[in-house]
Structures are given as C-alpha cells and as structure tokens.
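input
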Amino acid sequence: RWRSTDNGATWAQTLVKAADVTFTTPVEPAVVKVSSGKYLMFCRNDAGGDMCASTSADCATWTAWADTNIPLGLNPPAVVSAMGRVWLYVCGRRSTAINDWEDKLLVAELDGSTLYANGGAISGTTPLRIAMAGKTAMIGYLNFCQLRDGRYLGYMIDGETVTGSTNPSTTRIVRLGGHPPVMSAPALLMN
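output
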C-alpha cells in the first residue's frame, strides 16, 4: 500500500503481503471485509494455477497464502461480501478458460465466516457456476459499485471487437443487473 504523510507531496510504499514458495507471484488483489476485524484477500498467481487467499484481522499483517481450489489462469478475481456471504467472481476468457468455460462470468458463493476460519482455503470440488454468458472474446475485469440502499451494480468489459487482437479497436463497458428493480445485493448481478 502507498501512504502519504504530507498531503500527497511524497509517497512511501509499504509491503502488505509477499509471495511464498507455493504462490510465487500473487497479483491483482481483491480485498473484502467479511465482518468486524475479519478481512480476506484473493489474488491470482501470475505463474498460473489456482487463486490464492490470505486473511487478516487488521489489514497490516496477513496469514500464509492458502489455495482456494479455484483455477484462474490469467483472470483477475473480484469479490463482494454481504449478508454473511462472500461472492467470488472470475471471468473465463478465450485463451484462459476456467474449467473449460470460455466467455463466461463465473461465481462461487461461500459462507464468509467459514472461509475466513479456513484461512481462505476451499477444499473439494471448485464451487463455481455460470453467472452470465458473455459475448465472444469477453475480457472481464469486473468491478462493483455499492448503491446507497445496499444493492450492488457490477461493471465489466464484455469483449473486444477484433477477436484475438492484442490491440482491440473497440471494447464495451457493460453494467450487469438492472436498476430498478429492487433486489437484495448481490442477487442483482444474477439478472
């Protein structure tokens, strides 16, 4: 994390969580507060493989990386915590499919307290399901906005115009869910 003590004139970086032998290059973190004094951090491993997770009581010190059993490849995670549940979202993209799913937004709905107690580790079968089918060449990079009434909207890049291009000419940012109707968060994302 970066911190300034002089109103932004200078900045200093503080190491929050380092790599280890199992997860050698954790990148693109997603941090969520599960409850008071309970935080979860999820990262993809730039070396490939499963998403890793760590827990903290203060966001200053973090536990050892745990295997979430959710394969990511090069797909960054996004996370929401609400109503005691944690929703982990990942995008299975072309060339980096997840469990053979391409161009799909995938979600795992988990109990936040149990996940925290297990250090972020998930055992057994990967609990992913399809939340949305995207267009061909879906990119992802899902992000959330919580509304004043507690509902969430999700935004992501749904695809590139020129499939396979390293420099797509046109991409679209789309909003997931509708506004209104009134729904509890994050069920709004499932419409």
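quick obs: The helical segments are 112-117.
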